[in-house]
Amino acid sequence: MTVEAFAPAKINLTLHVTGQRADGYHLLDSLVVFADIGDRLTLERAEDLSLSVSGPRAGGVPVDGRNLVLKAAALFGPGPGAAIRLDKRLPAAAGIGGGSSDAAAALRGLAALWGRDLPGPEAVLSLGADVPVCLAPGPVRMRGVGEEILPAPALPDFGLMLVNPGVEVPTPAVFKGLVRKDNAPMPDLPNWTSAAVLAEWLAGQRNDLEPPARAEAPVIGEVLAAIAASPGCLLARMSGSGATCFGIYPGRAAAEHAAILLRESRPGWWVEAGAPYTL
Ligand SMILES: C[C@@](CO)(OP(=O)(O)O)[C@H](O)COP(=O)(O)OP(=O)(O)OC[C@H]1O[C@@H](n2ccc(N)nc2=O)[C@H](O)[C@@H]1O
Ligand SMILES: Nc1ncnc2c1ncn2[C@@H]1O[C@H](COP(=O)(O)OP(=O)(O)O)[C@@H](O)[C@H]1O
Predict the structure, then answer these.
(1) Residue numbers of the domain that contains 18
(2) Among 96, 146, 258, 260, fewest CB within 10 Å belongs to which?
């Protein structure tokens, strides 16, 4: 038996930091979507548990017990084995939850392969604050430290371009650089009737991690300017703790056109185009 599991990129369309818990973790209010751009896992029954990592972004990704895929597998406790192959396409430490989405895809895949229930919510959260939202990828409002998943209104069709300049930005350093932690949450979410209406609404919201991320990696400013200047772009913003930024376009074709042009002018950057993804 072989199970395939897709690990889509997570995008924080907004990311408001609204407080801090006693343990140091920050309270968030974030509109999260996923893109049909991501890593691929293939899982097969085997005597032992093993992981191999290949693909264009495999370099530097741990293949031992530090890999979130193996940490996810460990949550099931002792049991049957599995040979897991991870085709790594998303840049790591990039604000698009690559490792978290891999962990969530491994949980879904192993539950299907082994006929087991998913581990409980606290165990899932112990893998990382972004793992709960990655378990059932789709547009949601995420609160708490990442464990509170609330429904979001249906999204209009739109295109997405993701751009990473090749600089890893460690998440803890970005949170540490925040000047204020008690920022305003998002207002009630309206019904967005088109990509343009969504982009206009998002323009009035924030990613509070952008200033400290830009202090860590000033190239983020260049990335945002390049996306904003691309044809058809309705909005350019940073996702998560960076450095990946995204552009919103009226549709997939416009995003693909912008990506072709940006790859030519910035051959060293990771540039992908797609559309929202729901499992
Ligand atoms: C910032 C976000 C927004 O979606 O995305 P990324 O930039 O990672 O993609 C996430 O909250 C990241 O989630 P994740 O990367 O799973 O975080 P974890 O591994 O649990 O924590 C890494 C570190 O980030 C900080 N952290 C994380 C989440 C949170 N709500 N408050 C925090 O302060 C803590 O310093 C923690 O030590
Ligand atoms: N499957 C994985 N893919 C990517 N990184 C992983 C994975 N497992 C563990 N890691 C580690 O997690 C760190 C954060 O990676 P990632 O989840 O991609 O960050 P972010 O949430 O900021 O996009 C990496 O620096 C890497 O060492």
Answers:
(1) 2-144
(2) 260
